[in-house]
Amino acid sequence: MKQDKNANRCENCIVRQFNDLRALNRDELSEVSQAKVSKIIKKGETLFEEGEKLNGVFCIRDGISKLSKLSSNGKDQIVKLAAKGEVIGQSSVIADEKVNLSATALNDMRVCFIPKEKIVNPLKANPKFTLEVLKTVVSDLKDSNNSIINLSQKSVKQRIAQTLIYLKNNYGEDSDGYLNINLSREDLSSVVGTAIESCIRSVSALKKEGYITITNKKTKIIDVKKLEQFINDF
Q: What span, in angstroms and rounded, lies between the C-alpha atoms of 126 and 216?
């Protein structure tokens, strides 16, 4: 990880408008800005590993990280994708517990590492910040519950389709309509909770049935409404 010396000050950073840090007052933001360390994380590098005790949190300025958990069979299960504007490691830092997930860069990232005390101290003194953090925790819990429901109620093909819609809505498309983020078959199978072989078959079926097209490992959704209808067709 290389230090990025040209990072903006927190007070002027637009990224904070997308996370809990927007609830900090100017003095608190100034303290965070003085204490943070900005870094460049290369694709494939790890921000933190499961079981590690974190001394702070990571605010993502650019790039995407996969948060994964090692299963009993030794395979990584991707729990969540975290992108620009999100803060990761926050729950473990606040609970003063070892982190239960690993975070790995899916592409080159720019992040700001914020020391633990600059997050914990405002929680005790700033009710607005505390409320924002609670909202984030509740939202993460809701997403987790929805994932469990999807695993039990939707087919592998539907879950893959839902993931593609998620990637489109959250990370957009390029000028030719292809998803900006294209997961490897291994990562895609991990996200939806299936074997790679099953993932490959389901992707091929979606392509054959006219929902998507794939060129040079890049995916394009042909008809979003048609794909959404398929997802909701139990």
A: 50
